[in-house]
Amino acid sequence: MMAPPHTQKLFEKRAEKNILRYVIIALPDFDRGYKQISKKTGVPVPTIQRIVKRYHPYGQIKDAPRSGRPTLLSQDNLEAIEQAVENNPRSFVNELTR
């Protein structure tokens, strides 16, 4: 089963963001300055500095986990709910309007 369109776009956006971060990490190794990297990628210089500085001690480019309550439903549960609504939308409308 395929993810909903808005979720699919979110995954694609994250993938593009991670690829861009890998490019930013690699360019200083080729004697590129932060300003040159900024012009090439369109990412502000402070953001580039933060990405590079975070990569060296931790070896990762991902964002840190966010604070707050985690979601209660897993991706599998969300997809099951979506499938159930698609199969029988009237029962869900009736349930919501009681």
UniProtKB/TrEMBL annotation:
InterPro entries: Homeodomain-like_sf, WH-like_DNA-bd_sf. SUPFAM superfamilies: Homeodomain-like. This is Paired domain-containing protein. It comes from Choiromyces venosus 120613-1. The lineage of its organism: Eukaryota, Fungi, Dikarya, Ascomycota, Pezizomycotina.
